[in-house]
């Protein structure tokens, strides 16, 4: 046994070496660019092939090997330049998709040039073997491990001991600081990528030498290296090597453990589960803005469905036309003269693509959760269909439902991990999930045995209900496209109602979404489940169509292909997704018609993805916009009612408004008790203390807002205003102290529940949803009042539509109040800043709050805009809504507030009327410096005694 | 100029500085507009700094002080107007090129390399002069003269320093490039008054070696006591430009911070 363990460890070492070199490369690149370079594996593979090719051309072996590494370095620089730097504005997720595109192009080109036949590569070290415990070990195997140790040592020395290394480390940590110290961050990043490329090249050549050359297998051999790098924390070289040792040894040793050891893929399962758990646990401290796919977006045209109360009917008519045309086309398609049997097969496959694309639009395009693992969900649906039909004898329509549900449940599981991680880590988590599916789930005999070949045709033959013959390709065609129609119907209904707006809100800003009463956790999970259900249904269809499936159909590469469909379609548009699915279906059909072309299918698909990313990021969905000017010329030819909703429906809708829906009906400020303390308190924060580590950021701060007043909270920079404000708003819990809202203790209550109670918010950095119009932005805020459920939304039920009409009317009212009719139908991106502030106040108003909290509402406004905002705040107050604002612009606050609190260094300094505050010497001293602080004495304005100001500043 | 090290009456220094500034402008900022996202942060800001001068840039929060510094050092692009350093236009240049021309920026929030040691941070600051390998250690010694504490902690990671020490390291690192002009943003932020006073004394000494300094500071009186001249910004525009001593007694200053009664 000991011998076996020892030999296993020895044989695992080359693998450990390869994983470690790759993991180091991934970490070096990640530190410099904050991007998970998914093209890394493709670089390892190409380096090996190029070295192989050079040697085949009779170039001396050392030069050939060097050439491979140089090629890999150049490739890394190209990937960085075109797929990473160029997509920087889109954030890490867009950049990750960029590296996926690069991966696709490289692998497809390699498969085309060198074919997918495995080849024997060039040895890196001179031939030779060792014998240990009756086991033969080659020089290349030992060399791989030894090289890893040498490379790690050299790189460590470069980074830790040289000036260049110092600059590289510094730049990776803080690009801004590096640039103001004189180092060009872009060049340092290139250098890091060059190192990453060189490591990929070395690893690839050595790995090929101990194994074989194969375009896919070699490229995907880097997958465990990502797991290793993630286990190591993506930060340190030595930790990455440790991660690689853990992964490599686990792969070797886990199969030795008892009877469980015989389960195929068990080590991958263990590694993947460990990695997901580690990431989910670590996720809590991962911060950063999730800008999933932001670069892939431009403000789309306003979706017709949201254009006010009256136009709902017009939209329905339009949609009806699309549906009727679509139905006619689908019905006629199998009977068209030019449609061959083969073409029908591709059309069926396109239906599968379309459903998966819709699933991805929903999850990635609308909710911003990237998935690199959708092929696994499709696979689960497909294999479940096999098990259900063959082993359990369940007939077709029921297998569809069950397979979709199982897939949805698994997606919910992944969603639970996704709740803890963001952006890049989410991409990594889904990738690991996909890898686990590929290596474990789809290799299990119990899971796959029923699906190798469908034993007998289902449908009529097995007594399926309804009795249609599902062996006929055209019957399947109708079933498939009916399902596409259903998926689009559900997705479109969700998009245009409460659920879809909540999705967009979660993607746009989780903070703003929860301030509007959206339960972010719930909607993220919902998106995963719906998306998983759709992918599972697609898997069911695939099984029904092909009647035999192989695990290769659900590997990681297939997930990346689905991602390509999504991106080519434009990521957000259902129409774009369908169009992209059809396009890829058509490409497959055309290319297989001409044998000479068939080898180029993958190259063309990959280039299409790369081209869309680099040249036309709006994808197919953007084309109608681009040719809109041409269509506008045709407009006079169309019937008037079709184009009617182009004008805002404002004027007519305004007439239907009943007064008094916003604010408290019959509220009259003059009837309130004159003494502040005798009024009803809306918000009472008592003795709030907030500590971060050893630092006390807020110390015994108390703030009360009574009905009918505007309260200002001010303090110099760093005084703890924002900390106090966040503690009161529920963004972070106070260490001590309580918050009462409308008489109830709400300390520790999540933000979205406070929103339901009647608290609105605006943000310092405006948190509107840029891809939505002004009207839609306000419509999101109706969330708390809209009681219709997800299911009602999915089928556009009566309850949901009634709610829509009533909520739209309410939004119209606020738009009228704010005089925003002019811009109501425009996307908020591109509107003047002053208008955006007004919209944010308006959005808070739509939730019908009793209290609005405003975080620095005047920041970024010029004097005129500030005055307009002040007037708006007065009119909101007169509607019966209390206001609490924190503000830098003291002039503005003193102008609007009825009562003010001043804090300095986290401690209460003064409170009183604005006039009292302005005269207070302690306040003047706090704002202008310590110079006349000595003269500062407490005034009548209830100043806290100076002695209570405990300095809590670090020195 | 006060590079002779003698203590001179502030008024006299101010007048002399104004006179000299016109003779040899180190930096001329001419009518720049700058945006922060969709927000216009600067509206036609102009200012001049003479060689060896000490100038304060004042104004309420959000007035555009930090953006002005960021525009000068190239972090925030100016959309219109010019910035001229020593007769060369530097607007539109990348920040790392501007440092090489002698402008060091001590930014808000310090922006240290917190995972690097104190000494490594300082060495990074030497980047613009890295080809001159011989003087690196001379320069390290010179800079640590100002801050003996940093010498004690040279092997410690910057992130583990106290707030005051971090600010010292920020200044020291900026000095490693031997700048002609040092931009200082909110030196006092989060620091106890006594530490701030020490740091201002050090800036005074740095200035006496001929380095011009532009200070953004919320403690107005402190800033005015340590500078020759001052500009006051309001909503992105320069509203006042006076000698510091004149501005010290000026009532309108309080108004520009706290507003003019209701």
Description:
The complex is a heterodimer of chains A (about 950) and B (about 260). With about 950 residues, chain A is of the alpha/beta class. Helices cover about 60% and strands about 5% of the residues of chain A. Chain A has 40 helices and twelve strands. With about 260 residues, chain B is an alpha/beta fold. In chain B, about 40% of the residues lie in helices and about 25% in strands. Chain B has eleven helices and ten strands. Chain B is globular. The N terminus of chain B is likely disordered. The interface between A and B is large, with 51 and 63 residues.
Give the strand order of the largest sheet of chain A, numbering strands 1, 2, ... along the chain: 8-9-10-5-11-12
Biggest β-sheet strands, sense, barrel of chain B: 6 strands, mixed
Oligomeric organization of the protein chains? heterodimer
Beta-strand percentage of chain B? 25-35%
Proportion of helical residues of chain B: 25-40%
Low-confidence stretches of chain A: 284-311, 459-463, 644-660, 931-955
Counted beta strands of chain A: 12
Structural class of chain A: alpha/beta
Instruction: Indicate the mean pLDDT of chain B.
Output: 85
């Amino acid at each position: 046994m000991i011998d076996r363990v020892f030999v296993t460890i020895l044989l695992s070492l080359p693998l450990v070496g390869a994983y470690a070199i790759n993991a180091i490369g991934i970490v070096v690149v990640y530190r410099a660019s904050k991007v998970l370079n998914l093209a890394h594996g493709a670089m390892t593979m190409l380096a090996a092939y190029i070295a192989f090719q050079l040697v085949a051309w009779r170039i001396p072996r050392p030069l050939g090997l060097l050439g491979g590494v140089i090629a890999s370095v150049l490739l890394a620089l190209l990937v960085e330049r075109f797929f990473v730097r160029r997509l920087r504005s889109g954030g890490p997720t867009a950049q990750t998709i960029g590296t996926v595109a690069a991966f696709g192009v490289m692998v497809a080109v390699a498969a085309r040039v060198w074919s997918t036949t495995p080849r024997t590569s060039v040895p890196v070290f001179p031939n030779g073997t060792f014998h240990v415990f009756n086991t033969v070990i080659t020089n290349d195997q030992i060399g791989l491990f030894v090289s890893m140790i040498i490379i790690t040592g050299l790189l460590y020395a470069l980074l830790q001991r040289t000036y260049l290394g110092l600059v590289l480390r510094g730049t990776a940590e803080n690009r801004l600081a590096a640039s103001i110290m004189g180092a060009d961050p872009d060049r340092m990043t290139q250098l890091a990528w060059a190192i990453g490329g060189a490591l990929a090249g070395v690893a690839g050549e050595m790995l090929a030498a101990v194994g074989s050359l194969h375009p896919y297998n070699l490229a995907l051999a880097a997958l465990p290296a990502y797991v290793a790098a993630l286990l190591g924390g993506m930060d340190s070289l030595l930790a990455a090597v440790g991660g690689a040792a853990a992964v490599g040894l686990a792969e070797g040793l886990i199969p030795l453990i008892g009877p469980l050891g015989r389960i195929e893929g068990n080590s991958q399962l263990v590694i993947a589960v460990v990695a997901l758990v580690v990431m989910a646990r670590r996720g809590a401290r991962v911060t950063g803005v999730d800008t999933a796919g932001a670069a892939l977006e431009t403000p789309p045209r306003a979706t017709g469905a949201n254009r006010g109360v009256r136009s709902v009917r017009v939209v329905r008519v339009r949609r009806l036309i699309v549906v009727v045309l679509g139905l006619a086309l689908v019905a006629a398609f199998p009977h068209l003269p030019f449609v061959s049997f083969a073409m029908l097969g591709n059309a069926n496959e396109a239906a599968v693509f379309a459903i998966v694309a819709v699933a991805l639009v929903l999850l990635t395009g609308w909710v911003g959760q990237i998935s690199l693992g959708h092929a696994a969900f499709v696979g689960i649906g497909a294999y479940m269909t096999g098990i259900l039909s063959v082993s359990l004898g369940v007939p077709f329509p029921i297998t569809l439902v069950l397979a979709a549900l199982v897939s949805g449940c698994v997606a919910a599981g992944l969603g639970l991990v996704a709740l803890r991680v963001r952006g890049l880590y989410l991409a990594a988590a889904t990738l690991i999930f996909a890898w686990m599916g590929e290596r474990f789930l789809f290799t299990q005999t119990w899971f796959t045995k029923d699906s190798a070949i469908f034993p007998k045709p289902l449908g009529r033959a097995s007594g399926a209900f309804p009795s249609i013959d599902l062996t006929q390709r055209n019957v399947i065609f109708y079933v498939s496209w009916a399902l596409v129609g259903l998926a689009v119907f559900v997705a479109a209904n969700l998009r245009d109602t409460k659920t879809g707006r909540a999705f967009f809100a979660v993607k746009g800003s989780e903070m703003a979404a929860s301030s509007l009463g959206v339960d972010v956790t719930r909607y993220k999970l919902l998106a995963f489940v719906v998306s998983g259900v759709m992918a599972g249904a697609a898997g069911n269809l695939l099984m029904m169509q092909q009647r035999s499936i192989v695990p290769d159909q659900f590997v990681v590469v297939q997930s990346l292909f689905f991602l390509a469909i999504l991106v080519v379609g434009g990521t957000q548009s259902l129409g774009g997704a369908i169009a992209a699915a059809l396009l890829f279906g058509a490409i497959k059909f055309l290319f297989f018609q001409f044998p000479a072309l068939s080898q180029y299918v993958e190259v063309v698909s990959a280039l299409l993805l790369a081209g869309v990313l680099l040249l036309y990021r709006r994808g197919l969905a953007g084309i109608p916009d681009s040719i809109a000017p041409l269509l506008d010329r045709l407009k006079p030819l169309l019937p008037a009612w079709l184009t009617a909703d182009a004008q805002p429906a404002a004027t007519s809708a305004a007439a239907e408004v009943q007064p008094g829906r916003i604010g408290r009906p019959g509220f009259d400020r003059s009837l309130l008790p004159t003494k502040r303390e005798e009024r009803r308190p809306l918000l009472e924060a008592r003795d709030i203390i907030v500590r971060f580590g050893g630092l006390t950021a807020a110390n015994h701060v108390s703030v009360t807002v009574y009905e009918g007043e505007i309260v200002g909270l001010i303090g110099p920079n760093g005084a703890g205003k924002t900390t106090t404000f966040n503690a009161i708003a529920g963004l972070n819990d106070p260490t001590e102290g309580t918050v009462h809202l409308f008489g109830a203790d709400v300390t520790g209550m999540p933000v979205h529940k406070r929103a339901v109670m009647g608290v609105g918010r605006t943000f310092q950095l405006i948190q509107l949803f840029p891809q939505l119009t002004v009207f839609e932005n306000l419509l999101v805020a109706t969330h708390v009042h809209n009681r219709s459920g997800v299911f009602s939304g999915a089928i556009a039920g009566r309850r949901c539509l009634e709610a829509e009409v009533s909520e739209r009317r309410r939004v119209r009212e606020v738009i009228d109040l704010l005089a925003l009719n002019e811009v109501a139908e425009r996307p908020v991106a591109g509107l003047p800043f002053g208008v955006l502030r007004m919209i944010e106040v308006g959005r808070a108003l739509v939730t019908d709050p009793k209290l609005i909290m405003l975080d620095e509402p005047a920041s970024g406004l010029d004097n005129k805009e500030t005055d307009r905002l002040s007037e708006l705040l007065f009119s909101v107050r007169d509607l019966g809504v209390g206001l609490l604002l924190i503000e830098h612009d003291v002039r503005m606050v003193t102008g609007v507030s009825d009562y003010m609190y001043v804090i300095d260094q986290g401690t209460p300094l003064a409170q009183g009327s604005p006039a009292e505050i302005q005269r207070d010497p302690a306040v003047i001293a706090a704002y202008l410096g310590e110079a006349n602080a000595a003269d500062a004495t407490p005034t009548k304005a209830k100043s806290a005694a100076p002695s209570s100001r405990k300095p809590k500043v670090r020195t | 100029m006060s590079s002779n090290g003698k203590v001179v009456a502030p008024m006299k220094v101010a007048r002399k500085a104004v006179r000299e500034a016109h003779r040899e402008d180190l930096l001329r900022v001419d009518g720049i507009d700058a945006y922060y996202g969709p927000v216009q942060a600067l509206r036609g800001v102009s200012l001049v700094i003479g060689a060896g001068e000490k100038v304060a840039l004042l104004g309420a929060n959000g007035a555009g002080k930090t953006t002005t510094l960021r525009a000068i050092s190239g972090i925030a692009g100016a959309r219109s107007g010019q910035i001229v350093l020593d007769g060369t236009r530097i607007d539109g240049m990348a920040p790392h090129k501007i440092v090489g021309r002698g402008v060091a920026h001590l930014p808000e929030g310090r922006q240290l390399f917190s995972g690097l040691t104190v000494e490594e941070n300082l060495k990074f600051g030497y980047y613009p002069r890295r080809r001159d390998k011989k003087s690196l250690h001379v320069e390290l010694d010179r800079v640590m003269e100002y801050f003996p504490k940093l010498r004690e902690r040279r092997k410690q990671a910057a992130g583990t320093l106290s707030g005051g020490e971090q600010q010292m390291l920020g200044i020291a690192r900026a000095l490693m490039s031997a700048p002609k002009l040092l931009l200082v943003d909110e030196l006092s932020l989060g620091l106890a008054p006594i530490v701030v006073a020490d740091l201002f004394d050090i800036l005074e000494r740095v200035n006496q070696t001929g380095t011009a300094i532009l200070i953004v500071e919320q403690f107005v009186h402190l800033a005015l006591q340590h500078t020759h001249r001052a500009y006051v910004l309001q909503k992105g525009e320069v509203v006042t430009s006076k000698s510091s001593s004149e501005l010290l007694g000026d009532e309108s200053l309080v108004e520009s911070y706290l507003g003019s009664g209701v």
